[in-house]
Amino acid sequence: MTNQEVVIPVARAEFISFQSIRVEVESHLSIHWSLECDGEPIAIRQVEIHREERRVVHELTATQPFDLECRYEVRGAGTTIRVVPDRLVRTEAFERKYRYEERLGVWEEEGTLQFVVWSPVAERMMCLVYDQDERFVSRHDMQRRDQGTYHLQLEQNMLGYFYRYEVTTYLGTHEVVDPYAGAISENGRYGVIMDVEREVATWFPQRIKRPPFVKPTDAVIYEAHIRDFTLDPSSGSHHPGQYKGMVEHGTITPRGHATGIDYLLDLGITHLQLLPVHFFETTDERTRTPYNWGYDPMLWFGLAGSYASSPDPLVRIQEYAEMVETLHAAGIRVTFDVVMNHVFIRERSSLEHLVPGYYFRYEIDGSLSNGTGVGNDTASERFMMRRLIVDCLTYFARVYRIDAFRFDLMGIHDIETMNEVRAALDAVDPSILVYGEGWDLATALPERLKAMSASAAQMPRIGHFNDVFRDALKGSTFSEHDRGFVAGDGWKEGEVRNGTAGSVQIDGQTYGRFPEPTYSINYVEAHDNHTLYDKLKVSCPEADEQQLLRMSRLAQTIALLAQGIPFLHAGQEFLRTKQGVENSYNAPDEINRMDWERRDDHLSLVSYIKTVLQIRRMHGGFRLHRANQIRELLHFVDLRPGVIAYEVEAVHSYDAWQRTFVVYNTTQEIIEIGLDHSKWNVHVQGDEASIDPLLKGVDRIQVLPLSTTIATC
Questions:
Q1: pLDDT tens-digit series, residues 293-337
Q2: Which residue, 68, 602, 656, 681, is most buried by CB atoms nearer than 10 A?
Q3: Could you confirm whether 528 is annotated as catalytic?
Q4: Per-residue DSSP letter, 607
Q5: How far is Cα 450 from Cα 410, in angstroms, rounded to an integer?
Q6: Contacts of 18 (CB under 8 A, 6+ apart)
Q7: How far apart are CA 243 and CA 309, in angstroms?
Q8: Alpha-carbon span 356 to 41, nearest angstrom
Q9: What is the pairing mode between strands 671-674 and 659-665?
Q10: Cis amide prior to 290 (ω within 30 degrees)
Q11: 591-632 confidence digits (pLDDT tens)
Q12: Around Cβ 713, how many Cβ atoms within 10 Å?
């Protein structure tokens, strides 16, 4: 039957394997099918027909394997339809056939410029070259080679020109920016022909060594947004809101107190975590407006130009590299905020145009997975997406010498990817930290594969933000009126004890959340959600400013001295407020700025936090890095509800403090405690904290309301 008498509507034709095609039609008639590849006939060996709901499915099996760079069409029932590899790109067979492990991107080699891009489904790939005024210069046909890659070699006289790829797939022809482009033009419109690694090495022939760092629990992480940190006039910066401003020495407030990098050095941090510097679209790089945190990336290897003194491609690279070098020279390591769980707009992303349907995760019904809440989740479980993540991080670790990587929404990624990240970074420098948000998110990935905190034991040497400890201290992030332990909710005392012990198990005392304390990132505030001060203010409307200060100080002290890795959000040490704005990702500068005048108003609190960090740094008992050490050396002392007390013994016999007794009092009463001899010294009590004893030779201590007392002998 030739079907010349009737045309049968064909709904869809797609590859289901590298030798089979599925054709959906709306009527159950016997149809004679033919298959062509770029106009050449392909023999069909077998046709199977079955019904699915209201459609009839014809499965065609060819006599030879398919090559996806060809254009395949099926003809039948008076209709011609393009065969698409929509779901095929998400199969194991596709992964096996097209996984590519050689170099991607642009680089210099033996006096030539090499271009390699991966797009197995592309029918054609062109490299379009533009001058620096974005005027078209030339078009170059790229050669298809193994594993679905396209290659091009150009002469070095093209260095510094702009480029894009023109890719033709079954969805049409699009110009895209190379996803591996390390140098990009203003607002990410073009890649720049440049070997960034070689260029940076030329600028910095003698790299400054990474600051000394022995073990993860020695870290003190401080999170800041580049624009927020120096934009306010009170910072005294000559480069407000810029990479340069982050490392500008000698800046002071109108009252003469240090700001910027000098302030951070005095505070005593080890790692500066900067909010995203991946290129993100929502801020125009020329006007630097509107404000945005930057969690909407489009290109991961390219840097944000809105923080550079000029959006020029070279300037952003040089100033970012100089910033990292200067921080290293000052003794501060740098954390990179990794936002590779999604892209800002999938439909416009280079990845979606190069290999439609591959880089993003889908539900069983074919809809996009949306665990991130922004419309798309990247599919880290697929080889080339996993490789992209690993390549990006090792690139920043190698080229810019980044010292730590913080994963935004790490729970979107899979466990295997995170372990490969850890292994790849170990090959660069084992001291590099890796940690992230191990939330259990509603992404289309089996629970057993998610890189979430509940599976921490399967990801050795990867830290997790301890949200349970955070909420126990200050109250639930998702219920603004919920109170935490420091605000009088005694039901949360057990969780605070657990967090204090690094969230490891101590028989009969803590239940344990992590296998080792190095897995626990201890914090009470981050860029997300209310600041600690704002949270306490909204959950405790009856509290006056003095009570808010005491609750904040107590919560911070508990988190900073807990076993694990302490983390501070910029300004929490001086009661930073965002005027009650809970999610300030796109709020104006007036909300997000670091108010250095407020810092000057709370110098005594800053001094207290600084001293707590000094105490932590000077005494190894607060930096235990093994669970068995904690079980051996840390012992809780039961006193009364609302009070947590513990003693931690010295790590070494030569330590100045052989025994340290710590008491946290969340009640409104003074607590008096008798000690076992009269040779104890008090270093922290009430509003005061000191390296030198505040009181010497005591056999009793007082713990004031909403405060910490630390005694040693």
A1: 999 999 999 999 999 999 999 999 999 999 999 999 999 999 999
A2: 68
A3: no
A4: H
A5: 9
A6: 65, 66, 88, 93, 97
A7: 8
A8: 26
A9: unpaired
A10: yes
A11: 999 999 999 999 999 999 999 999 999 999 999 999 999 999
A12: 16
CA atoms of 206 and 70, how far apart (whole Å): 50
Q: Is 96:109 a contact under the CB 8 Å cutoff?
A: no
Copy the structure tokens of residue 246. 């982050």
Query: Buried b / exposed e across 183-221, counting CB within 10 Å, b at 16+?
Result: bbbbbbebbbbbbbbebbeeebeeeeebbebeebbbbbb
Residue 216 three-state SS:
helix
Using alpha carbons, select from 130, 126, 121, 14 the residue that is nearest to residue 73: 14
End-to-end C-alpha distance for the chain, whole angstroms: 98
| Whole-number Å distance between alpha carbons of 368 and 566 | 36
Residue recorded with tokens 């990624």 = 413
- Dist CA 332 CA 571 (whole Å): 18
H/E element holding 398? helix 383-399
Distance from C-alpha of 162 to C-alpha of 164, rounded to nearest angstrom = 7
Q: Which residues are CB-contacts of 304 (< 8 A; sequence separation ≥ 6)?
A: 276, 277, 278, 279, 280, 283, 285, 294, 316
Residues 213, 219: contact at Cβ < 8 Å? yes
User: Which of these is catalytic: 228, 352, 381, 408?
Assistant: 408
Residue type, 646: Y
Q: Where are the beta strands (DSSP E) in 398-538?
A: 404-407, 433-436, 463-465, 520-522
Tokens of 287: 């006007």
Among 437, 495, 573, 595, the active-site one is: 437
CA dihedral 613, 615, 616, 621 (to 10 degrees): -170
Q: Is the dihedral of CA 132, 133, 139, 142 positive or negative?
A: positive
Q: Cβ-count burial of 246 within 10 angstroms (0-12 exposed, 13-18 middle, 19+ buried)?
A: buried
Q: What is the DSSP track for 311-361?
A: --HHHHHHHHHHHHHHHHHHT-EEEEEE--S--S-GGG-HHHHHSTTTSB-
Handedness of CA 317, 322, 324, 325 (dihedral sign): positive
> Is 231:241 a contact under the CB 8 Å cutoff?
yes
The DSSP-derived string for 253-314 is -TTS-B-HHHHHHHHT-SEEEESP-EEESSSBTTTTBS---S--EEEEEEEPSTTSSS--HH
Report d(CA 4, CA 75) in Å as an integer. 12
Question: Which of 162, 152, 139 has its CA nearest to residue 105?
Answer: 152
Please count the helices (runs of H) and the strands (runs of E) in the chain: 17, 36
- Per-residue pLDDT of 496-555, as tens digits, reads 999 999 999 999 899 889 999 999 999 999 999 999 999 999 999 999 999 999 999 999
